[in-house]
Design a protein that fits this description.
Elements lengths: L1 E5 L5 H10 L3 E5 L10 E4 L4 H22 L2 E4 L1 H6 E5 L9 E6 L9 E8 L2 E8 L3 E5 L4 E6 L2 E7 L2 E4 L10 H12 L2
Parallel strand pairs: 1-2, 1-3, 3-4, 4-12, 5-6
Antiparallel strand pairs: 6-9, 7-8, 7-10, 10-11, 11-12
The protein binds glutamine.
The site of glutamine has 12 residues, from helix 3.
C-alpha cells in the first residue's frame, strides 16, 4: 500500500518510520503531483499557518481535491488543516471534517504534555504539543479517541484526525486504524 506523508514542514519523518514498520510503502510528498501516486495521505504536526503559506492557493486546492476522494489522516496541525472551522485565530483550510477546532488551546503552562486517553476503547498514551482542542463535532463525526471529556481523535468517512501525536508513542494502533481505513476503500 502506497501512503504519502506531506513533507513540507514539521514532524513527517516519524510518520514515515511508523508506516514503514507497519509494511506500507511511503512517499514523502513535497510536490502536488505526487498526490496522484498515493492511496492515502498523512498530514503531520507542525505549524498549520506555515503549511498554508508553503502550500499556496494552488497547492491547497490540489489537496482539497485529494481529501474529497482519498483517505487522509491529520495529526495536530494536520487536524487543524482538515477542520471546517478554525479559531485562535481564524484560518482557512481544507474543510474536510465537520468540526470546530481551536489552535494552541491548552495555553502556555501546559504547552506540551503526555497524558493517558482512550483510543478505540483502550487506554492509550497521547503526546500533546501546542495542541488544538476540538470544540464542536458535527453529526457525521465519530469520536474514536478521547482524553478526559475532550474528543481528541475523530473520523468522518475516510478522513481521520487526532489532536495528539501518535507517531511519538510506541503504540502503533492509531496508524494501524488509518491503514485499515485505506485498505477498506480499495
Ligand atoms: N500549534 C500548531 C498550530 O496551531 C499545532 C502544533 C502541532 O502540530 N504540534 O498549527
Amino acid at each position: 500500500m502506497k501512503i504519502g506523508v506531506l513533507a513540507l514542514q514539521g514532524d513527517f519523518d516519524a510518520h514515515r518510520r511508523r508506516l514503514e514498520e507497519l509494511g506500507a510503502e511511503v512517499v514523502l510528498v513535497k510536490k502536488p503531483e505526487q498526490l496522484d501516486e498515493i492511496e492515502g495521505l498523512i498530514i503531520p504536526g507542525g505549524e498549520s499557518s506555515t503549511f498554508l503559506k508553503l502550500l499556496g492557493e494552488a497547492g491547497l486546492e490540489k489537496l482539497r481535491q485529494f481529501v474529497r476522494v482519498k483517505p487522509t489522516f491529520g495529526t495536530c496541525a494536520g487536524a487543524i488543516l482538515l477542520a471546517n472551522e478554525v479559531d485562535n485565530p481564524r484560518q482557512a483550510g481544507l474543510g474536510a471534517l465537520d468540526i470546530s477546532i481551536r489552535r494552541n488551546a491548552y495555553g502556555r503552562q501546559v504547552d506540551s504534555s503526555i497524558r493517558e486517553g482512550i483510543f478505540a476503547g483502550a487506554p492509550t498514551e497521547m503526546v500533546f504539543i501546542r495542541a488544538p482542542k476540538i470544540e464542536r463535532v458535527g453529526p457525521g463525526i465519530e469520536v474514536i479517541g478521547s482524553e478526559g471529556n475532550d474528543p481528541v481523535a475523530v473520523r468522518q468517512g475516510k478522513i481521520m484526525a487526532a489532536t495528539f501525536h501518535p507517531e511519538l508513542s510506541e503504540d502503533s494502533r492509531v496508524h494501524r486504524a488509518f491503514l485499515e481505513l485505506v485498505s477498506d476503500r480499495k
